[in-house]
Amino acid sequence: MGENPNMTSNRALRITDTLALPTNEKGRPSRKRLTIPDVYGNSDVPNPEYIKSHLLTEDRLDETLALRLLHDASEILRAEPNVLTLPSNITVAGDIHGQFYDLLTILRTGRPHFLFLGDNVDRGSFGIECILYLFALKISFPTKYFLLRGNHESRHLTKHFTFKRECLVKYSQSVYDACMVAFDTLPLAAIINQQFLCIHAGLSPELRTIDDLNKFSRFKEVSKAGMMCDILWSDPVPEFGQEVAPYLYSHNRIRGCSYNYSYYAVEEFLERNNLLGIIRGHEVQSAGFKVYKGKQADSYPVLISLFSAPHYLGKFNTKAAVLDYANGKIHIRQFSSVEHPFWLPNFTDAFTWSYPYMVKKVREIILVILSICTEEELDKSDRASQRRGMMEQSKHVFTLKARTMKRFVDRWKKTEQQLPCKDFLTLNYYSSPENNALFNKINIINDVEISDKIQSPLGKTASLPFDLQHVDIRSSSNAQGAAPVIRLSHSLAHISNGDINDVED
Ligand SMILES: [Mn+2]
């Protein structure tokens, strides 16, 4: 283990096992927030098992405990180099994306060491659970569990996808801020057994030797260009291994930033650095993994993609996979998703989510109550009332009121369609042709405004209700400030072809 001589290996295994677990009746939430004494006891390391069983029932941690875990883990991570040196006999996992219950599947088996390639948060509803538990494991067993940074371990993506909102709903701004500080300390790459480079996304034109990765300070937000951006954002070219003519890099149009690297770029890099292959995550795979061309028929593949979030986004029928490497052999282990608790889109509570339904139904009820007669009947009623006496006059007044009310409701209906109210629309999840059109229209406008404002190299594909058309917005990250590119139905088009390799993650 050469990753960090200063690592506090003496801290490992000193787990207090005398503390009583808070009682959870048949897996129901105890509603008790675990505290520092509950988890740390008299030790300087937490007991991850207490944390796991508590989080499993959707219970939460006391804020001081969450902050302590984030702080303690980031201190250990900060002491690690940019590039970890790891041994063989290891399990490598790709993107987890907030799927805490599937993360537990990975951890249940596996090798004596674990390496996570990044993107543990966003998309799924349990990103903070993933981080708190993985960090508890890191603090307790710093030479067993290793974490790399993904492009989603950053301020600008967690803000635009789900993780920030999740932290604010489940915890607080302080916990989110502490997560961001901790993410800045995550190492960027690992070399396994002096043979394989493990990295979240891939190569960069600026990356010539492994030493290049250790030459800069990583303790900052992910940059929007340059090597730190590339290794967390790049992808292999779509025609990887079947390039007609040799070339190294092309612009990554799908991501809107960074590059696509070719087979030749990988081959050249591996030869220069005397490595066998690259293991990376970053792209969803229908089988959970993708093995790319090897140098020769019997050699190791030069590139392997892993994706460890099964049933991705709750709608893609995808498997997940991890890679076991031991005794010079690579084993890919596939796994399927397990059941998990359900969260409404955007962590909305049930009352807020159902508010638009209520407004619609109450409006319809009022309309039905007030529509006591047709327009013709109203006209007849008008003429009749003019010929009758005082008793009839009161009926006339009522019909006038009814007519006014109907006009008011009709006008309200039109106004609602013409003037998009953001609050209403973000809650407007119910599906009908006119509402879908309205929702999509407004969603595009909002996303472009946000993307323009921060000039972020991100694409936003999450958080739309499943039954709505998938809207995929990608804004260009280049300094010239090119107009954002709006592409419709990108992901769904691919899934319908059984090809989801292109879906951003
Ligand atoms: Mn990624």
Structure description:
With 505 residues, this protein is an alpha/beta fold. The chain folds into three domains: 81-334, Purple Acid Phosphatase, chain A, domain 2 (4-Layer Sandwich), CATH 3.60.21.10; 350-419; 444-496, no CATH class. It is built from 17 helices and 17 strands. The chain has helices spanning 36-40, 48-56, 63-78, 100-108, 127-140, 155-160, 163-170, 173-183, 210-213, 227-233, 263-273, 350-370, 375-387, 390-418, 422-427, 433-454, 490-496, and strands spanning 83-86, 90-93, 113-116, 145-147, 189-192, 196-199, 235-236, 249-251, 259-261, 277-280, 289-291, 303-306, 320-326, 329-335, 459-460, 471-474, 485-488. A hairpin with a 3-residue loop joins strand 5 (189-192) and strand 6. Helix 3 (63-78) packs across helix 5 and helix 3 (63-78) packs parallel to helix 8. The longest helix has 29 residues, at 390-418. The two termini are 31 Å apart. Residues 1-25 and 420-503 have low confidence and may be disordered. Manganese (II) ion binds next to loops.
